[in-house]
Amino acid sequence: MADEHEHEHEEAGEAEAVEVPPERLERRRAALAEVRQFGDPVLKSRASEITEFGPELAEEAERMIALMHEAMGIGLAATQLGVMRRMLVFQAGPDAAPRALLNPELEWVSADLVTAEEGCLSLPDVIVDVERPLHARRIGVDVEGTPMRLEASGLEARVVQHELDHLDGVLILDRTPRKQRRAAMKALRHGTHFDPSMLERGAEEDEPSEDGAEAEPQRS
Hints:
Elements: H1 14-17, H2 22-32, H3 55-70, E1 75-77, E2 87-90, E3 99-109, E4 113-120, E5 123-133, E6 135-141, E7 147-153, H4 154-167, H5 178-190, H6 196-200, H7 211-215
Antiparallel strand pairs: 1-2, 2-3, 3-6, 4-5, 6-7
């Protein structure tokens, strides 16, 4: 996830509070050049289960984690790199350890729902509101194929759900309110910024319906 907004998830206002050195931004741009961007059909495709395990999976996980850090993200799915297998990495906070999860599934989610802003490394400069369960339990395996069961709440639960969506070909645009989706699509077409506060300020005006364009090939 960029925060998977300029982070594959950032806390609101956090990005503005920290001034990022120009050289760090350049490294981020270089990392993002390796991430598939909105409009790439691979983002709308479901990844395949991993059935064979070997040393190359650990190497791939390390590469994904390094790229996630360079891109200033807190989560990354293999499909965002054009690799069609069910693998994701995440690090929900600077004090958390980065982790890789393969063949992930949501075993349980809470009835408590929370709406929060999300960004995505594959949707440059776009932030939208997404409603998700506050707590989640996911199962999967590690890079060696050992079963894992992880309990998560808050940001970590959100990040993992975001990345799992990627593995199923689902984008945050598919989960945000229609009005925000339309405004975000317009920003993506024009290469401009969008966040929910722009609608609150009345900065975004309704435009003629373009359902065909908004439906995209279906999946990011």
